[in-house]
Amino acid sequence: MRILVLSDSHGCVDPMQQCVELVQPQAILHLGDCARDADRLGRLYPRIPLLGVPGNCDYGSADQPERLTELARLIRDGSAANLTEAMELYRKQEIDS
Questions:
Q1: For the CA atoms of 74, 77, 80, 81, what is the dihedral angle to 10 degrees?
Q2: Residue 36's closest CA among 66, 19, 17, 58?
């Protein structure tokens, strides 16, 4: 699985968009500092699963860093075969709780 990891975009969505076009990822992780940039990227590429966590400049963000740890656990323990499945399971757990 090809995963594109981005961070510290600070309002620069165009370079992230160029990376997506170049890499053609199956999933995108945005590691913060301007979570709204990840939201914009998600709207541009709605078919690519995108997961973001807040950076030190993302005050008041609803996403939690523990989310990545939980996704890794779901894959490691065999509950999910890949990041896409892990994200679906995680979202279902959020809805069910």
A1: 130
A2: 58
Q: Are 36 and 44 in contact (CB under 8 A)?
A: no
Given strand 50-52, what is the order of strands in its sheet? 3-6, 27-30, 50-52
Tokens 């894959």 belong to 75
Backbone angles phi, psi at 6, to 5 degrees: -125, 150
DSSP bridge pairs for 6: 30
Query: Are residues 58 and 79 in contact, defined by beta-carbon separation less than 8 angstroms?
Result: no
For 15-33, how does the pLDDT look when each residue is reduced to its tens digit (9 = 90+)?
A: 999 999 999 999 998 887 7
The mean pLDDT value for 68-89 works out to 77
